[in-house]
Please model this.
Amino acid sequence: MKVMMVNGSPKPKGNTAAALEEMRKIFEAAGVETEMVHVGNKPIRGCIACQKCSETGKCVFDDLVNETASLFEECDGLVVGTPVYYASANATVIAYLDRLFFSTHFDKTMKVGASVVVSRRGGSSSTFDEMNKYFTISGMPVAPSQYWNMVYGLEPGDAAKDAEGMQTMRTLARNMVFLMQSIALGKEKYGLPEKEPWTPTHFIR
Model:
C-alpha cells in the first residue's frame, strides 16, 4: 500500500504539514508507505486548456505535475492538504490538481482520496467541498473521519493544540487504510466495477 501526500501550503513546517504528519504516523504504523510532495511553495501555473496532454500523455508545462504523475498512478491513496485562503484552497494547489488530474489519463477508479483543510477560523467547509470534487469526478472513494477533515490554527504549532482536529486526522488515516485494504481485496475477488462508454453532453444541446 502506498499513499501520496500533497502539502499545498507555502510553509513546509506549518499547520497543514502538522496535520498531514499526524496522518503519516498512522499510515507508517500500519505498514503503508507514504511520499510527501510539497506543492504550495512551487511556481505552478494553471491549465490553459491547450489539450496537448491528450496527444502526448503529459502536461505541456514540464514541472512538478509531470514529475509526480507516475507517483499518482502507482499510489493506492491520495491525501491533499491545503490552508484556507478567502474561503478557498491555496491557488497553487488548485493549479497543480487541475493539471494533474486532467493531464493523467490512467484510470483512477477506486484510488482512495482524502482532503485536509487548515484555517484560522472560517472557510473550511467550502474548501473541503472544493477539494473533494477532484476525487468524486474521478471515481475515487472519499475517506471519511469522525468529523469533516479540518484543523484549526494560525501560528505554527497551533494545529498540535487542536485536540479534536488531530484526532480527526488520526481517524481519517485509519479509515483510509481500511478502505484501501478493503478495495484491494475486492479488486482481487471481483475486479473493478463495469464502466459504460462515456456519453459527454453539453447544456446547449
